[in-house]
Amino acid sequence: MTELQAEQAAAVPQAEAGLQRSRYFDVLIALAAFAVLAILPMLTGSKALLDFVIRCSAFGLFATSLNLLVGYTGLVSFGHGMFFGLGAYGFGLIMQRTGVPVPVAFVATLVITTIIAAVIGAICVRLKEIYFAFVTLAFQMLIHSTILSWVSLTGGDQGLRGGIPRPAFFGIDLSNHVHLYIASCALLVIGLLLMRQIAQSPFGYTLRMIRDNANRASFVGIDVWRAKLTIFVLAALFASTGGIIMALFVSGAYPEFAYWTISGEGIFINMLGGVTTFLGPMVGTVLLLILNDTVTRLTEYYGIVLGIVILFFAIGLRKGLMDFVVEWYTQRRNGPGE
Prior knowledge:
Elements: H1 3-43, H2 47-73, H3 81-98, H4 102-124, H5 129-149, H6 151-154, H7 177-200, H8 202-212, H9 214-219, H10 224-250, H11 260-273, H12 280-298, H13 302-317, H14 321-334
């Protein structure tokens, strides 16, 4: 064995040990974050604050899952919101029409999402970037049109009416607002932790290689189509989970959940928070929801304010908030001479 081979062989266990430590650290952060969120109802009696966190959980999972495509794989999807809508409608319809326990409906919704995402993804990921973006949008509009036209099943433009049954399971009663809040926080933390593990895994670095140069990745033996399809389906599952949380929150599902504007909000969230840091979409979600709640309360010219914010980030910062903060901190730490 040459000296170079010996160094490479010694570096592998060190890299694996470092990855393992990083995973343990991520789990500890996730547990700490959940603990902080769980005690929040004990510290405040504000229902509005708990509602805000539930909404952040739904849209945070959706936006972060979109960033698995946009930031890590280089696939800009204009139709990712279809899976948010599928999660809401799938879960709501299963609960209304079958009366199965909530965990069964949850798993069944994810299975349905997996099948639909696999079919759509198998078509879309073969296409070049711009065509991928618009074909995903076309599929979203198809699903939205189906929701509007299949009135007997979906309720049409009125959405699912009559509420979503929430039978208690394992001592958890989702009709209780605090229980729903805790369950939403748990799904958020688990979802973010799983997506973090995907992003930091060898598969995640394979996605980065595909993003940077798909032809080179294919040349070194990576099955680019299979990798893109896999992350497309995984991202759909997390987006669907966000839709389930929203369906539970509003006790129903509405066509707006599957409209193209939901995908637009996801892209805007990623632009606000940044796509090069894992928590960028989560920060963007908080910013957008605060912006929505504040501006709509103060003025009717929401579109003008939103346009100014977009211009500020696009022309002023030229990056998301977390991207800007990380870059500023790195430059400050390295010093002006670096």
